[in-house]
Structure formats: structure tokens, C-alpha cells
Amino acid sequence: MAGLFSNHHHKVDPVWHVQAIMLVAIGLQLALPEKFSAGTHYAIPALEALLLLALSFTTPRERVFRSLARRVNVFILIAVTSAANAYSLAVVITQLLSGTHASVNGRELIVAALNIYLTNVIAFALWYWEMDGGGPGERQRIAKYEQDFLFPQHQHESYKHPDWKPTFIDYLYVSATNAMAFSPTDTMPLSRRAKLLMLVQATVSLAAIALVAARAVNILR
Question: Residue 75, exposed/middle/buried by CB under 10 A (0-12, 13-18, 19+)?
């Protein structure tokens, strides 16, 4: 496992970045009021923690790799996180639209909206990271035109970054800026699946902030 937490090559995409941000997502889910959680309060975080631990063992130590076990591991982890967050958003919106929010604390709704928004940023950063060019191992091998995203460094290779490859931190930035601006900023989606994912993320962010937060503030008044 120790090999995963070292970066002997500048092109390596460290796994510990993903593990660290997923621990933040798990913490957010544990902080979410139980009424908005999917299943029992600890069931989803416990499953995610197990999948996160498994990632240390399913990820090859090589810079360029293909691993079906790792890919299945990651997709289940991301799908569980995304589904749980979507469920929480659906519960909050249902309570607001059904008029049952009279029994719901306005501050709880604000906390839930912020929680869902931040978890959404993390979940889609993981989707982008695993989707782009076939994942971090495959991405080290392919040419830039085979990737799903066009980063600024890809447009200026002759200037400074001829061999530059994105790592998880770059996808976290893409996810955060897309959630804030509801549109791409400096990194452009090239494939239809990338555009569709960014569309879904922006829609969820808009629902969490514009609808939930606005109604929660209204309740507080």
C-alpha cells in the first residue's frame, strides 16, 4: 500500500488524493441529518469506506495500467456516492414542494443544501477523473485528442507543458467551477458523455442552491 502514497514520477496520479477527498464526502454524509440520508445513517458511509479501502489493493502500482477490478471498484464507489446524494436532494425537494416543510427546520435545510452541493462537486470530480480517456492508468498512454476534456495546458503544449497529463486535482477543479458557474470555464468538454455529465452536475447544483437554499432562507424568515 505504501507505494500508492508516493509519487516517484511527475506524471503519476496519486491515489491518496482520491482517498482524501472521499473521506471528506463520507464526513459530509455523516453530518447530514438522518432524515435526508439513504437507508440507515451509517450504511452508505460504511460501504464507501470499504470500497475506498479496497481501492488501495485494486489499483496497480504501474504508471500506465489497465485493471478491470479497479475500474469496477471505482465505478461502484462513485455510483453509490452519487445515488445517495441524489436521494438526499430528492427528499429535500419533495418535502419543500409537498408543503410539508412546516415541520422542517430552515437551518437544517440550509445545511442539507450546502452538504448536497459539496458532495455533488466531489462525486462529479470522481466521474470526470475516471471517465476521461479511460481512467488515470489509460490516460497516461493515450494522445490528448482521445480524451474527453480539453485542458488549457493541452492548448499550449509548445509553451511549457509538452507532456502534461491531468490528475485528480485538475478534475476536482473542473467539477467545482462547473458547479459554481453552471457551465464550463477554462476546461472544455469534448465528448458527448462529458457534456452530458457536466449538464447533469450543473442541474443538480442549481437545484441544491437556487431551489433548496432559497426556500430554506424563506422558511427562516
Answer: middle
